[in-house]
């Protein structure tokens, strides 16, 4: 229930609109009881309006609080959002072969069991450089801002990309790349 849908509107003439579009949709994860939502930053980059949809379908306006180029995280605050936050875990616990749950907005139908396929550095030429990015398999089709949840039910990371090389050492294996939650801490 802590995973919300996130919608952002970006001006058509914004620098990122050409590559990311002016209407973006993904996921966010409620991380405190005051409506703070963690997402992947490209969803809210240059946004002029952001809304979140909670587990009950309620639409709540949100304000962009932060975008961090180093990690790729974005934070929005949705005042009036009534959703219990997820507890932050320790992404160092996400060792290769560990079981995980990848959760997008939409309840159980949007949750996918998987495993950590590899841990390694990731360089996104457009923004961030991450040591110890978490690569998972199988891929979730709605990865942007999705929650990576450990066996203890705590948040380990936030979804950023679909990749074809999630295997150890970058071996071919379709999956997703998650930004480790410890970078938020």
Q: How is this structure best described in words?
A:
Helices cover 2% and strands 45% of the residues. It has 1 helix and 12 strands; from the N terminus they run βαβββββββββββ. It starts with a strand and ends in a 5-residue tail after the last strand.
Topology:
Blueprint: E1 3-9, H1 17-20, E2 23-30, E3 36-40, E4 49-53, E5 59-67, E6 73-77, E7 99-103, E8 111-123, E9 129-137, E10 147-149, E11 155-163, E12 175-180
Antiparallel strand pairs: 1-2, 1-4, 2-3, 3-6, 4-5, 5-6, 7-8, 7-10, 8-9, 9-12, 10-11, 11-12
Question: Could you say which structural class the secondary elements and strand pairing correspond to?
Answer: mainly beta
Strands of the biggest beta sheet: in what spatial order? 1-2-3-6-5-4
Distance N terminus to C terminus? Answer: 22 Å
The profile of the biggest β sheet is:
6 strands, antiparallel, barrel
Shape: globular
How many beta strands in the DSSP annotation?
A: 12
Q: What is the H-and-E element order?
A: EHEEEEEEEEEEE
Rounded to the nearest angstrom, the radius of gyration is 15 Å
β-strand amount: over 45%
Unreliable stretches (pLDDT < 50, length at least 5) are none
Number of helices: 1
The percent of residues in helical segments reads under 10%
Give keywords.
185 residues; mainly beta; 6-stranded antiparallel barrel; 1 helix
Explain briefly what this protein structure is.
The chain is an all-beta fold and about 180 residues long.
């Amino acid at each position: 229930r802590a995973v919300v849908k996130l919608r952002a509107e970006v001006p058509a003439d914004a620098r990122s609109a050409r590559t990311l579009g002016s209407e973006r949709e993904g996921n966010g994860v409620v991380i405190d009881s005051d409506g703070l939502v963690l997402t992947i930053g490209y969803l809210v980059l240059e946004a002029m309006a952001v809304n979140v949809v909670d587990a009950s379908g309620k639409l709540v306006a949100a304000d962009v609080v932060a975008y961090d180029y180093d990690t790729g995280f974005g934070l929005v605050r949705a005042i009036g959002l009534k959703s219990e936050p997820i507890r932050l875990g320790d992404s160092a616990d996400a060792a290769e072969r560990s079981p995980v749950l990848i959760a997008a907005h939409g309840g159980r139908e949007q949750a996918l069991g998987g495993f950590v396929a590899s841990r390694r550095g990731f360089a996104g030429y457009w923004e961030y450089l991450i040591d110890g990015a978490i690569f998972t398999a199988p891929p979730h089709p709605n990865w942007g801002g999705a929650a990576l949840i450990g066996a203890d039910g705590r948040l380990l990371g936030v979804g950023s990309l679909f990749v074809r090389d999630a295997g150890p050492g970058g071996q071919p294996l379709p999956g997703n790349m998650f930004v480790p939650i410890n970078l938020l801490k």
